[in-house]
Design a protein that fits this description.
With 88 residues, this protein is an all-beta fold. The protein has no helices and five strands. It has a five-stranded antiparallel sheet with strand order 4-3-2-1-5, with no helix packed on it. A hairpin with an 8-residue loop joins strand 1 and strand 2 (22-29). The protein is globular and about 45 Å long. It starts with 9 loop residues before the first strand and ends in a 28-residue tail after the last strand.
């Protein structure tokens, strides 16, 4: 089964818990697994500091203009909002 998307291609992906799709770029085609039903990719959004590992069936090549996508704000982990002060 050949890969549907190529490295560098822009795709739509809707993260779990989100209602609208966001724009992502294919960073890497993951190695094919022997028993896998679907191929995997590493994707990245400009709004997120990390990459996501997703299935091919979760992606769409129907990409609109970049201005059509809402800018997604990165979610902070539970600990990232804490402020540490140094006691003297």
């Amino acid at each position: 089964m050949p890969f549907k998307f190529v490295v560098g291609q822009e795709v739509e992906y809707t993260p779990i818990g989100e209602k609208t799709a966001s724009l992502y770029k294919i960073m890497r085609q993951m190695p094919k697994e022997e028993q896998a039903v679907d191929l995997r990719y590493r994707i990245k959004s400009q709004a997120e500091p990390y990459e996501r590992n997703v299935l091919e069936c979760q992606l769409s090549s129907d990409v609109g203009a970049e201005s059509e996508y809402a800018t997604t704000q990165p979610r902070l982990s539970r600990r990232s909002h804490r402020v540490f002060t140094q006691s003297t």
